[in-house]
Design a protein that fits this description.
Strand content: under 5%
Largest sheet: none
Shape: globular
Radius of gyration: 25 Å
Distance between the termini: 23 Å
Order of helices and strands: HHHHHHHHHHHHHHHHHHH
Helix content: over 70%
Number of strands: 0
Number of helices: 19
Amino acid sequence: MADGLAKTLAGVLGFGLCKTALGVAYLTAMGSVFSNVGFISELSFMTPMLVASLATASLIVLGARRGRLSPGSLKQYPAVLALSLGFLFGGANLLPGLPEGALALVCGLLCGFSSTVLNTVWLDVLSAERDVAAPTIQIIGALIVQCILIPLAVDIDRFWAFGPPIVAVCLSALLLAYKKRGMVFPARSILAPADSSKRRDLALAYLCVFVLVGVVGILHTAVLGSQSEHLVGDVNMWVPLAVATLVTLLMAIVALRRPHPTSVYRVCLPLLLVVLSLLPFFGDALGGLVGLIVIVCYDVCGMMFLLYIVDCSRRLDLSAYLLAGAYLGGSALSLLAGLGIGSVLRALSVDYGLSLLTLLAFAAIYPLAGVFMFGLRKIQRRSTTDADESARSGVDVREDASKCESKHEANAFTQGSAEEIQNELRVIDDILESGVEVIAGENGLTRREREILGYLARGRSARYIAEDLVISENTVWAHVKRIYAKTGVHTKQELMSSVEQAALRKRQQ
């Protein structure tokens, strides 16, 4: 118990220090910029940083796909060294003879590489936690630590822009090494989910975040150097960080351990559309409110996506390297595209006398609304259909499997003795039982919930369970709902897959 608490605290502080060091690197261009406008410190630093992040994430995904990166094998120390060197070059000015553009290039490349590797390593470790609640606690705690420490590191003086961040990332590395000691990393699939509905759900979640990232990039570069620069220039970056941290904390509590990015997007979308629609008419009056709202929505989605990656890795049995690499690389590409589009909009406004705020509003509204029209509504309809189907079918999560077993039994009867059939059925039952034990242990099910999960895994209906346990069907359904909430499933197919994957993991171990 004491060791578990110590490692949880190590995760909170370690990941928090890591996020703090990376946040300071991002906001100050490795300690070399102290008067940035908006959420981007310097474009000459930002562009190579995004390119390096995209390249690093692509290599991580490729390595995982080819089996060269097994869970827990990615090393953090090259990234720690790269980030420390970047702060020494940018903040301590250890390369005084280097031209300003070259210095920004070097620091940007080091920052992009280190931020991608460190985030991926931490998400991989958190996804391997045995306690289902531990990753959520550690991520939320780390975000709170980041929110407290970043303004201290950015606003004091030049020394604080490079000295403490180096100490922070080194201490974070030691805490991560302590957390990994004795940790067992389960084997994960390197492919997308076999279920097409889960693949679409995963793709839509990524799309929501990528669109928001692109809109933030458009907003920033479009207004730089124009009369509307105050839209982002008046935003104190600690304010959206603090608001986003609070909102993420509240949403994580409400959604328990499985917040979904599309749910966040549905909440943010109406607010974004209203603000952006008013932009051409009341842009000057709104001031920094537009930038504040857009950046808060972006920060909330980014923070919630950390929880989502860990949850998907555990629930869908997917490689955290693939999920984190796709998120970090896709975000870098989306932000690059947004910066480019924003630059084009600013040029069109100058060359042709077009209203910059009108161009900006249309460029942001169309992709935001497009995701909702063609993605979120389809997912919502499908979720409603699944819920209706589940209500009609009861909790018979193994109906199809039972049919297959019946067919298998018939074939076996023609080929062997009744004793052989019984032996095979016992093997199947033992496999299911091992999966039930794993699910019950990982999700903290009570004795009764574990008992009912055993019935569900064998395809029993609510009526059968109630009659066999001599309880009411309403009581059975109450237990079933708690099982669904604790395991994070919504449909019969998800529960069936969870038990089967848990059994497979146990057999592999």
